[in-house]
Write a structure and sequence with these properties.
Length: 287
């Protein structure tokens, strides 16, 4: 399956490479060598060796590890990866309903990674990173970020919502019930989040009108139906991790914030292609 997914990514990446480069290797070659490593859950240095390509690699000579490390941090490669995201994810403005949550990406407690931090994870505290995502109805999140584990979900959500196109509803759990987040989302998006202290009075301090409106909606069947739909993002994260080339726990060679971002981005692209293939099989299956 890994080879098949990579070949499909090849067909998407190459036509999208319209970005100038002054290097010996073209941007699409750098991206595809990196994706070859990620789809096989191997370090980039592994993909830089000819013996690990069956059949032959897409370029006559493979870049070195140092070349890959340098080129993967360039703006042109970053733009190409974003173009692939846009190709697979489509226009986020078509989704009027989004769900928001985070997924911890813990690493070892004794890791010397300077970018990793301690923070809340499932069942306690952990060291590492978090994938924050706003997911609509597409194969990819409409917005996502990688932050250190100590960055709160609400703080990361504000950064994502500021750049979220379109309008509609964003549904989250109680940690997203804050005046600051409601203010950031309004007026394009209405946050729907369970009250942090259900049944408690709001007190005498000022509350953003969008938060008051959310609490009014939650008292109605429509708001409760939206809140129940939030659980879909748990299945989104589960699907991202439940196949051979999916997002497993971060391997030892994926450390530092920029490498974690690249690794997770590649895994999101691979998962989107898997979902697209599955959907195509279902829609073309005989009745």
């Amino acid at each position: 399956m890994e080879r098949e997914l990579w070949e499909q990514l090849y067909a998407i990446v190459v036509p999208l490479d319209r970005f100038w480069t002054n290097g010996f290797y073209r941007n699409w070659e750098v991206v595809l060598v990196f994706l070859w490593a990620v789809v096989h859950d191997r370090p980039t240095s592994w993909a830089c060796q000819h013996r690990n390509w069956i059949p032959a690699p897409p370029c006559h000579g493979l870049p070195s590890q140092s070349t890959m490390s340098r080129r993967l941090r360039t703006a042109a490669v970053e733009q190409l990866l974003h173009a692939v995201e846009a190709q697979l994810g489509g226009d986020a403005r078509r989704w009027w309903l989004h769900r928001i949550d985070s997924k911890p990406l813990p690493i070892g407690w004794h890791s010397h990674d300077p970018d990793a931090r301690y923070g809340r994870a499932a069942g306690g505290f952990a060291k590492g990173y978090k994938l924050h995502a706003i997911w609509g109805g597409g194969w990819l999140p409409s917005a996502w970020r990688i932050e250190s584990m100590n960055v709160g979900d609400s703080a990361a959500a504000q950064q994502m919502i500021q750049n979220l196109p379109g309008e509609g509803y964003i549904v989250g759990d109680s940690q997203f019930d804050s005046n600051a987040l409601h203010a950031t989302a309004w007026p394009a998006h209405q946050m729907i989040a369970q009250q942090q202290r259900p049944g408690k009075a709001l007190g005498h301090r000022w509350h953003h009108p969008a938060r008051l409106r959310a609490l009014q909606l939650l008292a109605k069947p429509f708001g409760q139906a939206l809140l129940r739909w939030r659980g879909e993002i748990e299945r989104d994260f589960a699907g991202l991790t439940s196949f051979a080339a999916g997002l497993s726990p971060l391997p030892n060679w994926v450390r530092h914030l920029h490498r974690v971002r690249l690794w997770v981005q590649a895994k999101l692209l691979i998962n989107a292609l898997r979902l697209l293939n599955k959907h195509s099989q279902l829609t073309t299956a005989p009745a």
